[in-house]
Batch of 4 targets.
Target 1
Amino acid sequence: MAVQQLTGEDLADKVAAGVPDAVEGMADGVLRVKAPKIADVAGFMKSDAGLDFNFLNSISAVDYISHFEVVYHLTSLTKQHTAIVKTRLDGREDLSLPSVYHLWRGADFQEREIWDLMGISFSGHPNMKRIMLWEGFEGHPLRKDYL
């Protein structure tokens, strides 16, 4: 059985239809979604039979000083395709995204690491506490404003 290649445009169209008002665009193979909708988009991408993104490779965060981006790398082991999903958080204070822990248990330590080192919390995470540094440590050392 031949595997049909999933194009970026196909992915963007399918997600936009499945999660209205969530997709901001598709560029350079990266699906950009609105921050409050990230868990809804992830849930759709996992549960849709044509997408079946059943594996979370990684979650990472990037500090661009003017904003943060959180990047999700997803794989469908059955459909043999991958996706990169990014969301943007503006500002420097009280940054939060919905957790995807309820979809992929592998998000547990990754979301905690992003909280610990970058200061982005994940609402709905069952154990949002530091994972590398001790409780009471002030600041988030991978932020570009950390001294």
Target 2
Amino acid sequence: MPTDPSTRALSGQRSVARKLALQALYRWQLNECPWQDLIQEFHDAQDMPRADREYFRELVEGVWRAREALDADLASWADRGPALLDPIEHAILLLGVFELRHRPDVPYRVAISEAVTLAKRFGATDGHKYVNAVLDRAARALRPDEH
């Protein structure tokens, strides 16, 4: 746990941003739309004042833009294709792989831990175990020097 109060605050704001990004990406899977519509739709979300808005935007836009490459990555680390994944777990995995691939400033343990926390809160009963296993494989491939 970060000890610097400003680091703790940023960490908390990013956690809220990840949660909102998960909700936006879940919504997008049910009804596809441009990423800008998702940003606008979640602009006034109840938790948005506590979120890192810029990080929320980066996650949603980044996953939306890289979705095909992220799904190709997921297909190589998961035991089933992305289309067969539960939509919540799919969105969590997209976020986790995005952070592992595109956000080297986020330690791999943080990316995995945040994803597992989201899966425990929003996913199926044992979905967090699956998310953990897939993202661990992803971290070994994407961050071999850090893992």
Target 3
Amino acid sequence: MKKSILKKATIMVIVLLVAIQFFKTKENKSIQVSENAITQHYDVPENIQNILKTSCYDCHSNNTNYPWYNKIQPINWWLADHINEGKEELNFDEFNAYSTKKKLHKLDEVIETIKDNEMPLKSYTIIHSNAKLSDSDKQEIEAWVKKIKSEIQ
């Protein structure tokens, strides 16, 4: 009796896992650069742009480079939710649409979160080890953020 229930439960789980594979999310991919992108309004030196692309843009822009495992549910849903939350918090491709006050606040948060090692997230850097920020990277970003802040104020 118990083997029968276990067998039915296993089959149900397998069927459910197969069925959810057909429910994908919309990918965070943009064909063109947004007119509100930070790069369209402020100087973003190449070294800073490289750091941002490697460590930030997958969750904080309109263009995510998806890993192969994004094709598997429920991982796809989890990544989509994570990306949406990241973009709500800060979107470098929509930065210039923010009010001056919000821009300054978001830039302060950039410095704070990298100093406190909150960004990039540990769950991201486990798989994307190249996204880890060195002390030098952090210093470069902080100097750049302070320069942008002085232009905004």
Target 4
Amino acid sequence: MARTSTVRLGRTSGPSVSKGDLSKLIAKKAYELYEKRGRKSGHEMDDWLEAERLVKGKSSK
């Protein structure tokens, strides 16, 4: 039986999600950022990193 890792969202407390679900949430948010920017390519890494910060509840500044 495989173990499923979980990650807690937010700084101190919040819901636990699997790493797979966390990646899906980050990907969705990164795509939203891409769309918001007018679907211009070349900023994939920036979008992913910003999405990670937003999903994990950290300040982007």
